[in-house]
Amino acid sequence: MDEHQRANLAKWNELVAVHARSAFYDVDGFRRGCCSLRPLELEEVGDVAGLRLLHLQCHFGLDTMSWARLGAEATGLDFSDTAIEVARSLSDDLAIPARFLCTDLYQLPKVLDETFDVVFTSYGVLCWLRDLEEWARIVARFLAPGGRFHLVELHPSSAPSRTSPRS
């Protein structure tokens, strides 16, 4: 890991606690059963019941766990050990059957040897990628035959509101 990557990881580890307490992520609402996914994601991805879903760059896992609540066999990945600890803790506390892996995205093929019906990633992930072509190869590597990749992204200065109604 180079100096830039170490600094990035340190910052994300620091932000986990801030984000977990923020109204934007609304962990209390999530604990009460709210879904962290937006209508666009739910509509575009569709029914995930019984599907294997890999969530790349999952942060502390609310969306991963929301997919699990909707019936997916969900696996979330993030490079932040602090984020993955929070995700695992929430998953355990809420009895949500989601799996979380802590690894650098580019090391995932060395850590995981399976395929998924859906590979999902969302909001604010592309700007952190150091090798877009390798990222695309990794997405393709983990898609099962006939699987689908779902990416929803935005410009970093126009963060979406999490205030829309959630079920």
Model description:
The protein contains seven helices and five strands, in the order αααβαβαβαβαβ. It is 40% helix and 19% strand. The chain has helices spanning 3-21, 27-31, 39-45, 62-69, 81-93, 108-111, 132-142, and strands at 52-55, 73-78, 99-102, 116-122, 143-152. Strand 1, helix 4 (62-69) and strand 2 form a beta-alpha-beta unit. It has a single domain (3-152), classed as 3-Layer(aba) Sandwich (Rossmann fold), CATH 3.40.50.150. The N and C termini lie far apart (40 Å). Helix 1 (3-21) runs parallel beside helix 5. The longest helix is centred in the N-terminal third of the chain and has 19 residues, at 3-21. With 167 residues, it is an alpha/beta fold.
Short description:
The protein has 167 residues and is of the alpha/beta class. The protein is 40% helix and 19% strand. Strand 1, helix 4 (62-69) and strand 2 form a beta-alpha-beta unit.
